[in-house]
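Re: your question from the hallway

Yes, I did run it. Sequences:
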Amino acid sequence: MAADGGMGHATKRREDVRFLVGRGKYCDDYVPAKTSYCAFARSTVANGKIKSINTKAAAKMPGVVAVFTGDDFVEVGGNPAGWLINSRDGEPMKEPKRPVLAHGKVRHVGDAYAAVIAETREQALDAVEAIEADIQELDAVVNMADALANTKTLVHDEIGTNQCFDWGWIEDNRAATDEAIKNAPHVTTLELVNNRLVPNALEPRCSIGEYDPGTGDYKLTTTSQNPHLTRLLISAFVMGIPENKLTVHAPDVGGGFGSKIYHYGEEALVLAAAKKLNRPVKWTSTRTEAFLSDAHGRDHVTKIELACEKDGTFIAFRTETMANVGAYLSNFSTATPTFLHGTLMAGNYTVPNVYVNVKAVFTNTAPVDAYRGAGRPEATFSLERVIDKAARELGINPIEIRRKNFIKPDQYPYASAAGLEYDSGNYDALMDGLEKLADISGFEARCKESAKNGKLRGLGINSYIEACGIAPSNLVGVLGSRVGLYDAATVRVNATGNISVMVGAHSHGQGHETAFPQIVADMLGVDPMSIEIVHGDTSKIPFGMGTYGSRSLAVCGSAVFRATEKIIAKATLIAAHMMEDKPDNVDFDAGEFSVKGTNKKVSFGEVALKAYIPHDFPLESIEPGLEETAFYDPANFTYPSGAYGCEVEVDPETGKVDICSMVAMDDFGTVVNPLIVTGQVQGGLAQGIGQALLEHGIYDENGQLLSGSFMDYAMPRADDLPNLVVDHSHATTCTHNPIGAKGCGEAGAIGSPPTVVNAVVDALQRGGFDVEHIDMPVSPARVWAAMNE
Amino acid sequence: MYNFEFTKPKTIKDAAKALAADGAQALGGGQTLLPTMKQRLAMPETLVSLTEVDGMVGVDSRGTGLTIGGATTHAQVASDAADVYPALAGLAAGIGDPAVRNRGTIGGSLANNDPAACYPAAALASGATITTNKRDIHAVDYFQGMFETALAEDEIITAVQFPIPQAGNYQKFVQPASRFALVGVFVAKTADGVRVAVTGASGSGVYRWTAAETALNSDFSAKAIEGLSDDPSEMITDLHGTAAYRAHLVGVLTRRAVTASR
Ligand SMILES: Cc1cc2nc3c(=O)[nH]c(=O)nc-3n(C[C@H](O)[C@H](O)[C@H](O)COP(=O)(O)OP(=O)(O)OC[C@H]3O[C@@H](n4cnc5c(N)ncnc54)[C@H](O)[C@@H]3O)c2cc1C
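Structure:
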């Protein structure tokens, strides 16, 4: 640990000052001169034929400047899926067009079919009500099994099926896995649902389109986790605006959790409207629109089988999943249930056979895509629930059955049966740490205490592993990604010694403005407060792929590291010149260059100044300036892992579950800022507990979202949560990136849902109830029903 | 939200006059009405705010019972009724969150008569009288089904009078999302007998569970109603719980309320 505030230092997040005093600047805070306001007409039926849309009355309403319908965008491209998935038979997935505005048909409640631009937002909303749309309601497909069985009611008539793909992973392992399960001494089977979640970022989506008729330049100010990706999608696929004529700027972003990765039709609409009207056009989502039109998360229906020896040694995992993709393919929707899910189905274990089948299903519901954890929570939940059930059936302690099958520290790199190569880890050490910190040995005593108060206490533990630092372009390319997944950073040392770092990652709550300077400060031996992060604006930053998949530090942080190395290399040349010696003789330490074996030295600041005042530079060997860019594309995913434990009390009279304790023991590799990491895990745990106990995006059979507001969609609140104990001291470093970091953004949401459900089932079993599983959210009503079945 | 006019009368008479106009609607704390307006589901032409009407705010315990002004906030009831009628104060303290309690009013809650609201249970169990600018209405006659009351269009709840029971308690089992009552039970032991009022469970709003009242009249103890459960056939089934679950909760919460009564 070098400079104060450098690597490993628990620096408070500097950006929080501006957020906490209300000086953050979010998209909706931007109001360019002459802004007009956009409102959308959205479908109230889940499936419907658009017979006619009459906008005449709306166009005449006060303040209205334009009305758009799907007809205005027939020439425009569709919003594409970012990953091509091939079915088991080799057929490519079905990719129906996703238009800017619905055309011909509406396919889910909330599907936008017209837009009004007016002088004020209220005028736009008034005019939306004056649009006369004749939409003939059709039967809706909502349930996935029905959608697959039904060939008459289709979400997209032109593809002739509701199945997007039928994917096998790894198809070559299928026969061996089937055989292993057939011959196994013990097979445990579990059917479960991974509940649909609505992301509900605090800040709803917002987009402002601007057009400069003088230069032909477009600008989109939008709520995005990845401005370059959004620009690429708009330029290359949807609107054909040259990339160098389009700036995408995402200012402060108030949470995303995945939902702001994707390009949405509203963004294309405000750009097109801005050009047509020659004035800025702004749309800000209401919470209701967010519920209906943001990409949702999860929504899997799964059957998993675990085959093992009588002593608990795992032989095979076989998984069959139906994954809901909703009405249209959102950008990562095809990757999430496949390569972010199937590849993790070996867990932390030395199981020799793994086979996963995923059928992706179109339904008349909002699109489903990556949401904090994205595929990995689904994998972890299935694995860790079926392992618990197997342990109970075999009479083996749930900690012991996991330990028995853990990959051991001397087995790395480890090629998992699901096709990944894990680089490092130590799952026993994590479990040791958990047993201690969670005081597992004291559980029985606490159980008795709870019983005295009429409560059933249960203990849930589990492991998890995730593949994150979503990157290696070569790997994701093989897996079907249509983009590369590197990241980029430019380190610009200014003449007066302060530093601007332009990064491709974009913080929407991750504390980049604090953590990234810690890396640079540590390497250069300068004050971290002299370093500013520039992010979110494609006109200022190098082409990076943004923030999701716990990739910011592992991928973009590594690019920052590499660019800083280049800075040191160049600064060394300048220092050598200044000290009139050979670069090889120059050392750099704690912000100071010196010539070996002499007392000659120059500071980093002096070198920076010299770089910009090169009066006496040998210009043939050293260019002026001190600015370097690095693109970093790692060799592999990173593999954070952990052991989680929680204790619950169940009220046997009402079925209410209280979480008494939650301990997260994670291996994130090198930790740059432990305070930020703890906060990230706590936030993830809150969402994981929310999924386990409270949250449920639920549609009725007509495709109406029943939990479409906070009156019915239960978000976790502070008093739903126990003290969240987070420890990341049992770390093994990532072997292939220069920082050694693995990524911590999603862990809490990945690891904790099975912990909670395992604990509830344990409590009920101890209380004498023969309950094997309860689907999430484990609400009081569901627990009571399970106890009284 | 659609445009509307706004007035803030100082007297009940002026308020009544303002409310007699076409499209006028009373505004209490706005905790129900404003969200509805924001979603464009209500479009009053004029809002008549009651929060500054003389004599409509306050908790008065000078008489035999408790008289609460119709525009008194939940927060004020929670603090000012705590000594005299702790069960009622406890109920008020458990409504929503601090922002809701500092705005929302007892009159607004009773006028709205949400089937999952808390105050209706207190009013029915206590045998409260709802006083309007026109008349006194006994609780038994006041509640007429989900979101239905005896109030006329332009009638204002000016006060609510609560007789104070010998013992009472309110138990609320929250709906996880809204935190309104999935089921709420108010038990009041009075000189005229025990009253058990149930909110949240029934499709027709607050009601009295007479079978439990009978049992409790002979023995005011949880034991007396052990094993007793209410008929689920008229109860609500929704994504938060079935009718059977609600019926079960009615039994559990009634027993708990009896045990906690003081
Ligand atoms: C987040 C949240 C949580 C909540 N939780 C709960 C809860 O747990 N339990 C619970 O019981 N309630 C809850 N509520 C509702 C809350 O108690 C409201 O305050 C109440 O339902 C309405 O009161 P108000 O004064 O805000 O009325 P308003 O919203 O102003 O008005 C509601 C209706 O009553 C009419 N009205 C208002 N005052 C009078 C009057 N004096 N005379 C005649 N008519 C009148 C209005 O015209 C309108 O039709 C919650 C509300 C919110 C927003």
